[in-house]
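Propose amino acids for all 171 sites.
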């Protein structure tokens, strides 16, 4: 795989999108599960960030400090508590330290981000376009969620937004 990245470019050419796409396709051919797993992980990470931002921004808290903590007991969360989707399921939707219930919407948002990321990969394959589509879709997901949270709308509006959003992105 490293030899592919070390290939010499033709004289006078810089690394462009077509070269990167070719490289990505070759890697995907050699490691068929690498990119689907990468998009699942990226979707979970970005979904986790979206939930963090949706909780902190309305309260005028920094996105970076203090580190993630339980809003009930203020215990700092460890890395094992921050694994998107998995930690929610393993801990049965509760804080590991005080047992405070974590709202289902956070799992829903993380899963939605994973689904958006996987759809971007399924639609575009291992190409730069897939990363761009994923980033664009997740930005709009965040904007829609922020607006809904600000407007205090019901979860039905959230579900409708996701459906409409998905249709618009992949047309």
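Proposal:
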């Amino acid at each position: 795989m490293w030899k592919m990245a070390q290939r010499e470019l033709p004289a006078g050419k810089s690394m462009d999108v077509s070269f990167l796409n070719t490289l990505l396709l070759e890697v995907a051919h050699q490691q068929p599960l690498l990119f689907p797993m990468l998009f699942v992980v990226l979707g979970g990470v970005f979904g986790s960030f979206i939930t963090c931002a949706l909780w902190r921004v309305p309260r005028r808290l920094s996105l970076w400090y203090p580190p993630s903590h339980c809003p009930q007991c203020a215990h700092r969360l460890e890395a094992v508590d921050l694994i998107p989707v998995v930690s929610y399921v393993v801990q049965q939707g509760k804080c590991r330290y005080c047992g405070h219930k974590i709202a289902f919407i956070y799992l829903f948002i993380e899963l939605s981000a994973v689904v958006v990321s996987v759809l971007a990969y399924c639609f575009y394959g291992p190409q730069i376009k897939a990363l761009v589509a994923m980033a664009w879709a997740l930005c709009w997901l965040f904007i829609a969620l922020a607006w809904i949270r600000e407007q205090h709308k019901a979860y039905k509006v959230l579900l409708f937004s996701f459906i409409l959003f998905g249709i618009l992105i992949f047309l």
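The chain has seven helices and no strands. The helical segments are 2-5, 17-30, 34-56, 86-90, 104-124, 128-151, 155-169.
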